[in-house]
UniProtKB/TrEMBL annotation:
This is LPS export ABC transporter periplasmic protein LptC. GO terms for molecular function: lipopolysaccharide transmembrane transporter activity. GO terms for cellular component: plasma membrane. It comes from the Bacteria. InterPro entries: LipoPS_assembly_LptC-rel (IPR010664), LptC (IPR026265).
Amino acid sequence: MHISKKYLFNLLIFILLFSLSLANNQDKKQEMPLIESTNMEVLYSEEGIVVAKMCAESRLQYENGNSIYPAGMYVECYDKQKRLIATLRANTAYQYVDKEMWELKGDVEVKGYHEGDEQQLNTEELYWNLKTNRIYTDKFVRLETGNELLTGYGIDAMQDLSYYSMSSPEGFVNVDSAEIQ
């Protein structure tokens, strides 16, 4: 039996395309969320004491435990005396369970309430390390304290903004001495 080269070539192309199609379907299957949640309010505790409350409109949780909060999230952090020490919000959030990390994107705002003072940090991207309770970014940041306004690129801070270090400061305004016209 004689098989033409054209027929064999077409058969090989068909098998190749079919294999690629199966591979793409496998990738899409892995990308599908395992659990979808809406209108969430989650309390986090340590030794029976609530240390944080997280609210989100929607969450997509994947098989590996990681989650995406496509409509954003809002978090309140408390100390052991149940006093509010920080708030955090973002337009989109990614939770990496194995790393105990969060990646926050889009109009990120962190407010810290430390010893009666309020600080507010604004940026477009921020990472939150739950192991160390630290936040950091290398993107543009705006930090407003009781009497100062700082701008620059990159910050490493405690999640309640009680301590912070700015990598590349660009602007500093002492609000008390600035004249507003």
